Amino acid sequence: MNLTFLIGSILAWGLVIFGIIQAALEAGFTAGGGLMMFVNPPGILIVIGGTIATLAASFPGSTLKSIPKFAKIVLFPPKFNPVSYIDQIDKFAVTARSKGLLALEDGAATCSDPFLKQAIMLIVDANDPDKVRAMLEDSIEFTTDRHAIAWNMCDKGMALSPAFGMVGTIIGLIIMLASLAANPDALGQLMAVALVTTFYGSVIANAFFAPIRSTLKNTHDKEVFCMQLVVEGVMSIAAGSNPRLIKEKLEFMLAKSEVKGEAAKEG
Q1: Which end of the chain has fewer surrounding CB within 10 Å, N or C?
Q2: What is the torsional sign of CA 52, 57, 58, 64?
Q3: Mean pLDDT of residues grouped by 10 in the chain (267 residues)?
């Protein structure tokens, strides 16, 4: 469970609601009355409905079907531990050094990570090292392209929700100006209703789409970093490098705190 995402999101929405209530109390309204000033069904329909509808129109059905998968990644992000990958690569390097590359096939068959398994099998089959590196780097690029769809949807949502908020505000202002002559006393109330849709759009963009995008991007970055470790490690194994040198080379790619932290856990 992604507790930081849940706690941060709940805190953000909670502080917004608390700010509304506090401002309403200072203005002489009740807490409930202050909250009700920000409840505008037509505005909700325009902003949330318009954003969802336009997102649906902007992406193919296959992408929209993946939304539950994206939500699962946000709430339950897969864990990518670089030190664990280095340890696995180190074991493969020791085996290759003592028994040869063909001996890696049995270990690769039980490997849980499909990318690491694929990389090991490519060097076991004695493929050209340059071609193997190119294939693995292409795989990373294709993975990035697939994952980018998720945060592109969030980028689109972050742009659309404030835009529809402005649309709602313009609609409200038009209605306000049209009714000004007939009911000038309602100017303040109509202005408040017009502006509340801008509020909806800003909050949805910054307290909903933005944290989801950041979570998806951070998870992707961790996965790609581990894939890069695999590429460097496996290509070093194929080149016949010393296992100790391979491990040190990969550890140089990590922050020192990560390496020391894992060492302390093992100790």
Answers
A1: C
A2: positive
A3: 88 90 85 84 90 92 90 90 91 89 85 90 84 92 92 93 92 81 72 85 93 93 93 91 90 75 51
